[in-house]
Amino acid sequence: MSVREVNFDGLVGPTHNYSGLAHGNVASMSHEGLVANPREAALQGLEKMKSLMDAGYAQGVLPPQQRPDLGALRDLGFAGSDAEVLARAADEAPQVLRAVCSASSMWTANAATVTPSVDAPDGRVHFTPANLQSSFHRYLEPATTGRVLASIFADEARFAHHPVLPATPAFSDEGAANHTRLAGDHGEPGVHLYVYGRQAFGGDGIAPRRYPARQTLEASQAVARQHGLGDAQTVFAQQHPEAIDAGVFHNDVIAVGNGPVLLYHEYAFRDEQGTLDALRERVASPLIPVRVPVEAVSLDDAVASYLFNSQLLTNADGTMTLVVPGECQEREAVWRCLQDHLLAGHNPIAEVVVKDVKQSMRNGGGPACLRLRVALSEAERAALSGRVLLDDALHGELTAWVKRHYRDRLAPADLADPALASETLAALDELTGILQLGSVYPFQR
Which residues of 20-35 are buried (b: 16+ CB within 10 A; e: fewer)? Predict the structure, then answer.
């Protein structure tokens, strides 16, 4: 069985803007109010996808959400025509308007948690969309995310879709950004590392003081139960509270794993040794931990550069490629760590590839935020619905689509423009035709 990891990147949406909505995300907060370039953002994302496809990695595409979410505004009591709803929201609740225009679904690492068929008792690939209840602008995403995933992974004999967890603080779920699967290769049974920031029920009360812990242990345990995973297949580890207070809002900002390799910062886990011991006990192949000490890269440098929010990709010869954001070159300690500690170390990481994703980075999302990893067999890849696996033709069509529909300048004040809403709906309607997804958006239903 030929199992490959497919990276499904989120297309950046036409309303990409800098509203500073994510509390605890230092980059998002620090760039609030700047003028964004949605066209450049989408093209940067597509260029990253194309370069990885050209390098031989399996690459998929997920569409953005419908924004502005006028239905959400109407649910909140704003009435009238679309233009009237937008104008009233801009006047009475500008932060709410910014939230319903967020293009945050581009970070598909938060879209869902996925278990490949080789690990599931029923031999199907399992999906649970994240409830993202910790922030209003992301709480709006799961319904459409579920429809998109159900449209693409539609074969019920091969794919299983679970309901979103209850949208309450006790089951706060941020998706695959806090989940890593480790195995000798993608076709071997794996071990699932779930990282949480806090316990909703019980615990010792040790938690971050500055920023909220978004993922709960209870949410991670519930997703593992939904997917039928047993104790021998799972490790639950608490994120280090000091890392969260430094701006590490998800585990994928401080650790990344693939195959048998776990690249992590010294402050990734509250109980570093206990986490490694539990993984070694469960992973069939020898675990290869690659530890970056705080003396080499400070927490501030880790957050500013998004060194650990990089894509760790497995090559056919067993080596690995690390795809890092350009910001890693701008921090001397980080770049030195990449050259002297990672590339020169005794580990499979043999290549570092630098990608410009500045438009995403300014909102707090690096290369790893932009993708949802799904390990699929050849038969499962053949069973996908729609036209979502990237090739040269699809890349060309999507690039032309972006250039036709996206603005090259968008300030938060522009979000009230009713023309932007009309432009976005027209663009998304055309996109569902290109991707052959059917009617996944509310306005199409």
Answer: bbbebbbbbeebbeee
